[in-house]
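Progress report, Aim 2. The chain analyzed during this reporting quarter is listed below.
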Amino acid sequence: MLAHKKSSYFYLNARRSFTLVEVIIASVIFIIAAAGVLSTIGLMNSPSLSNSSRITAMTFAKKVADGLHKDVKSGITAGNLSVGAHGVAADPLFPGFTASYVVSLITTDTNGLRKVDVTVTW
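Predicted structure tokens for the chain:
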């Protein structure tokens, strides 16, 4: 009976630890789970960078439109507001962004209403 207790004691001590196969399987599962979490975090960051660029482009387009509106208020209808395509000089506040705009007449009466389409690329 003493031998039985001794073998039971050794058996309990052997089961308190993990086998190499169990450690490897647990490691593989952990690595797969971590890779999934990290790839999800990477995908979540990508749209925020895109949104940041869009917000910057909208700010640049607003600056161009505000400059043209200022010309209208001051009575300047030639030059920047003449019908056709126009480029915008590079702005140091918006590096990597370029803007252009197209002016077209909406009506042919004496009001000379114009439509302005601003395009910003980056």
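The radius of gyration is 34 Å. The mean pLDDT is 81. These observations will guide the mutagenesis work planned for the next reporting period.
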